[in-house]
Specification:
mainly alpha, single chain, 0% strand, 3 helices, 84 residues
Length: 84
């Protein structure tokens, strides 16, 4: 992948992951996750599967994106289940 394509992918990854940060931070701070449980479960599973796929095809931008998305949504899932 060329430098320009990698830069575009990296920028997209940073923007997408950063969109989860305020929600995750609020969830941690308030110990309450307002998101739908089914949505969170599907998001964690899908992001985890895409993380594995991205690793297998050696796409490090999408690996990092999906790993961080799985982690952040996993935090939301943990809070949702722990503080019901």
């Amino acid at each position: 992948m060329g430098g320009g394509a990698a830069a575009i992918g990296l920028l997209g990854m940073l923007l997408l992951v950063s969109s989860w940060v305020p929600q995750t931070w609020e969830t941690i701070k308030k110990r309450h996750c307002p998101m739908n449980l089914e949505f969170i479960v599907v998001y964690v599973v899908a992001s985890s599967l895409l993380t594995v796929y991205s690793y297998l095809v050696r796409d490090w931008i999408f690996f990092t994106l999906n790993f961080l998305a799985a982690f952040q949504s996993g935090v939301n899932l943990y809070v949702k289940l722990r503080y019901v």
